[in-house]
Amino acid sequence: MNITNFFGDHLAKLTERRPMACKGMIRLAVLDKYPEKTPDQLRYSELKEIFGTTLKQRLENVNTTNAEQISNEIVSYLVKNQSLLTMA
Amino acid sequence: MYQAAFLFIIFLVFRVITGVFLFGTWRQTKKNNLLILVLFFLMNALNLLFLVFGNVMLYDIFTILTMVVGLLFVDRTFYQDRKSPFKLLLALALVLGALTIITFIMFDLSIIFQQNLAFFIHNIFVGALFVIFGLWSFIAAAGSLKTFSSSDAVEPWVKGRYKLVKFYSFCIILLGSLTPFTPAEGTVNWALLVILIANILRIAGETLAWIMPKFLKKYFNRGFTSPDIIEELSEEEILEAMK
Fold first, then answer.
1. Would you call A21 and B227 a contact, using CB atoms and an 8 Å cutoff?
2. CA A50, CA B176: separation in Å to the nearest integer?
3. CA of B206 to nearest chain A CA: how many angstroms apart?
4. Which of A43, A82, A1 is nearest to B140 (CA)?
5. Does residue B65 carry a pLDDT above 80?
6. What end-to-end distance do the CA atoms of chain B give, in Å?
7. What is the chain B residue with the closest CA to A6?
8. Number of domains composing chain B
9. What average pLDDT score do residues B122-151 get?
10. A60 touches chain B (CB under 8 A)
11. Of B152, B162, B233, the CB nearest to A21
C-alpha cells in the first residue's frame, strides 16, 4: 500500500489543498527526517514522529493556518489506522 | 485425538510455512510486530506437535502462551497509543490458563471431581482462551477496516486481508465455543467435527491472509486503478501549491 497516498489524501482534506501537493508534502517531510527511507519502509513510531515534527514544520513554513492542529489530527488518523503499516 | 495425528502434521506444516514466510517479511521490513506473529505461528506449530505425541499438559501450557503472544500481536498492531484492553485480557488469559492447568491435573489424577466433569471444566477454560483471543482479533480487524473502507488509497487486497483476519478470528471463536462439548474418551461427536472443519478453515484463512498469493491479490484488485503519484512535483511546485 502507498502510505503517501493514504495520508496525503487525508492531509488534502485537512488543508483543503490539492491531494498531489499534500502527497508531495508527506514525501518531503519523510525525506527531512529519514532521507534513506521511502515512506512505505517506515515504522509506526517513525511516521508518528515525522507527522509531529517535520510535517508540522513544513506546514508552518508555508504559513498553513492551524499547522499544529493539522499535525495533531494527522497523528490521530495514523493512530487510528496504525494496523495498515503491518497489514498492507 | 491422536488418530488425527496425520491431520495435525498437515496443520503444523502450514503453520511453519506461514511463520517462515512472515520471518522473511520481517527481515525486509524490520516491523517488530511481525516478529510477534512469527512467534505465534511457530509456537502454534510446536503446540500441534505436543498434540501429535499426546502430551496434553504441554499442549495446555503452549496454548496459554500462544494466546498471550496472539493478544500481544493484536495490541502492538492495532492499539499503540490507544485505549487498549490488553492488560485486562492478559490477566484474564493467565487466570484461565492457571485454571486450565489445575483442572487438567484434577482430570489426570481423577481427584475431587469425576474425570468427565474435570475434563468438561478443563475444556471450558481452554475454549475461553480461544474465544478471548478470537473475539479481540475480530473486533480489532473489523474496527480498523471500518475506518478506511471507503478510502481509495487502500488497495482492495489489503481490505481483503482484513476480511480474512475477521474470517479466521470468527473460526477461532467458533472452535473455542465448542471446545467444552468435545468428548473425553477419544470418540467423535458433532462438536469435534465442527471444530475440525473450523480449524481447517481457520488455518486456510490464516495462510491466505498472511501469505497472500499473487492470484488472490489480483482477484481482490480486479477493476482497481491505483491512485499512485503520476505527476512528480518538484519541491518548489509542492510548496507553491501548499501556499
1. no
2. 42
3. 13
4. A82
5. yes
6. 69
7. B153
8. 1
9. 96
10. no
11. B233
Domain that residue B13 falls in: 2-222
Query: Looking at the domain assignment, is residue B234 inside a domain?
Result: no
Residues in chain A: 88
For residue B2, the model assigns a pLDDT of: 57
Which amino acid, one-letter code, is at B44?
N
Cell numbers 498531489 correspond to what residue? A20
| Average pLDDT rounded to a whole number, residues B124-147 | 97
Q: Cα angle at B46 between B107 and B207, to 5 degrees? A: 120
Distance (Å, whole) CA B75 – CA A82: 11
Closest by alpha carbon to B11, among B40, B45, B55? Answer: B45
d(CA B168, CA B140): 13
Subunit contact B148:A23, Cβ cutoff 8 A: no
CB A74 within 8 A of CB A14: yes
**Could you tell me the residue ranges of all domains in chain A?**
3-87
Sign of CA dihedral B26, B27, B30, B35: positive
Secondary structure class of A58 (helix, strand, coil): helix
